Amino acid sequence: MANRITVFELGERRYGIPLADTCRFLPLPSIVPLPKAPIIVEGIVDIGGTVVPVLDIRKRFCLPAKTPHPADHLVLALAGSRKIALRVDRVLGIEDVDPKDIDDATRITPRAEYVAGVAKLPDGLVVIHDLSTFLAEAEARDVDAALENSPAEYP
């Protein structure tokens, strides 16, 4: 049975997350800064009345910073039980990947934090994120505290 992954671009690189963790894709709404949030949190957005933290995955993967652009997309996803948003340059779609075409990240390098595997697609590699490990426990607590203490004018 094939693994289904949502594939997106950051710069010239392609990444993915399991489709099971993907809620939906959206055009980029306005991101509101969240004071006292961990550095990985770019800000927050209001999605249908729910405040969702936007994670800056470029920082996590040591990619150059990029100012939000109207052509960017948000991938709404689940990191464990937490709803999060990832700002990406472009959602490319959903790929069905044969399990034999996915290498375990720990076999490639033992320090593959945040990575579940690497998919070998006909047109190149896709690094698959492990969203359950994306926010450290301390960062998750800091996000919760920042959301609880945010001023009333935040969504």
Throw out a few tags for this protein:
single chain; 155 residues; five-stranded mixed β-sheet; 3 helices; six-stranded mixed β-sheet; OB fold (Dihydrolipoamide Acetyltransferase, E2P); mainly beta; 13% helix
Reading off the top of the CATH hierarchy, the class is best stated as Mainly Beta
Spatially, the strands of the biggest sheet line up as 8-1-2-11-10-9
Secondary structure: number of strands? 11
Fraction of residues in β-strands: over 45%
Helix content: 10-25%
Can you write the helix and strand succession as a string?
Answer: EEEEEHEEEEHEEH
CATH architecture: Beta Barrel
Major sheet attributes: 6 strands, mixed
CATH superfamily descriptor: CheA-289, Domain 4
Secondary-structure-derived class: mainly beta
CATH topology assignment: OB fold (Dihydrolipoamide Acetyltransferase, E2P)
> Which value, in Å, is the CA radius of gyration?
16 Å
Average residue pLDDT: 85
- Total number of domains: 1
Shape: globular
Q: What is the overall number of helices?
A: 3
Task: Outline the structure in words.
It is a single chain. With 155 residues, the protein is mostly beta strands. It has a single domain (3-148), classed as CheA-289, Domain 4 (OB fold (Dihydrolipoamide Acetyltransferase, E2P)), CATH 2.40.50.180. The protein has three helices and eleven strands; from the N terminus they run βββββαββββαββα. It has helices spanning 57-60, 105-108, 137-148; strands spanning 3-10, 13-18, 22-27, 41-47, 50-55, 73-79, 82-88, 90-97, 102-104, 115-121, 124-129. It has a six-stranded mixed sheet. A hairpin with a 2-residue loop joins strand 4 (41-47) and strand 5. The protein starts with a strand and ends in a 7-residue tail after the last helix.
